[in-house]
């Protein structure tokens, strides 16, 4: 009888002990931010993430500023013409410096394709000015190529005297019209 009683006692102690071991299995505990409490990951709900609106606004401002700078650089590229001397397709020092800036912009914007337009003032015949405009466009294109811009990204066209940027029969107007202008494709 003592044996039966011992068996029952052992079983009575083992079953609660077994249940205690199973229910107290190791749990990952994560501290809850702010109050020093901890919560088991088995039952914890994720703490809400605090949204840093100052950082969001700073990022938006930085992105907006970057976009403005990119637009200004694009406008600067398109709106500044390479100027030439009278009856010439030779690049001056100023023209080479401007083309170097344009080459840097093109390298930083590899997907851009450009048309280099050659223009002249209205002195000379139409045929002569078309030829001179072509030489000016090719001169500007070739210089960009020497600076590392792929020739496949550059097309040329001559408008001769057909599309003046300045009107008038004076040196100021003539100077503005002797140019290579770049448009984006």
What is the distance, rounded to the nearest whole angstrom, between the alpha carbons of the first and last residues?
Answer: 103 Å
Shape: elongated
How is the CATH topology of the domain at 80-184 named?
60s Ribosomal Protein L30, Chain: A
CATH superfamily of the domain at 80-184: OmpA-like domain
How large, in whole angstroms, is the Cα Rg? Answer: 38 Å
Q: Which sheet architecture does the biggest sheet show? A: 4 strands, mixed
Strand-residue proportion: 5-15%
Q: Considering DSSP H and I runs of 4 or more, what fraction of the residues is helical?
A: 40-55%
Mean pLDDT: 83
Q: What topology, given as strand order, has the largest sheet?
A: 3-6-4-5
Describe this structure in words.
The chain is α+β, with helices and mostly antiparallel strands and 185 residues long. The protein has a domain at 80-184: OmpA-like domain (60s Ribosomal Protein L30, Chain: A), CATH 3.30.1330.60. 50% of the residues lie in helices and 15% in strands. The chain has helices at 2-23, 53-79, 93-108, 126-146, 171-177; strands at 29-31, 38-40, 82-83, 114-119, 154-160, 179-184. A four-stranded mixed sheet has the order 3-6-4-5. A two-stranded antiparallel ribbon has the order 1-2. A hairpin with a 6-residue loop joins strand 1 (29-31) and strand 2 (38-40). Helix 3 packs across helix 4. The longest helix is centred in the middle third of the chain and has 27 residues, at 53-79. The N and C termini lie far apart (103 Å). The mean pLDDT is 83.
């Amino acid at each position: 009888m003592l044996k039966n009683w011992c068996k029952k006692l052992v079983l009575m102690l083992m079953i609660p002990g077994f249940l205690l071991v199973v229910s107290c299995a190791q749990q990952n505990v994560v501290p809850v931010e702010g109050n020093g409490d901890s919560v088991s990951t088995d039952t914890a709900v994720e703490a809400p993430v605090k949204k840093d609106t100052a950082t969001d606004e700073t990022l938006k401002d930085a992105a907006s500023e970057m976009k403005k700078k990119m637009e200004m650089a694009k406008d600067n590229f398109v709106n500044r013409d390479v100027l030439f001397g009278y009856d010439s397709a030779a690049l001056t020092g100023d023209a080479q410096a401007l083309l170097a800036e344009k080459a840097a912009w093109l390298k930083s914007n590899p997907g851009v394709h450009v048309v280099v337009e050659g223009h002249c003032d209205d002195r000379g015949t139409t045929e002569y000015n078309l030829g001179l405009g072509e030489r000016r466009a090719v001169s500007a294109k070739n210089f960009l190529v020497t600076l590392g811009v792929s020739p496949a990204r550059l097309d040329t066209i001559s408008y001769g005297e057909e599309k003046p940027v300045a009107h008038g029969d004076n040196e100021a107007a003539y100077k503005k019209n002797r140019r290579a202008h770049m448009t984006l494709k």
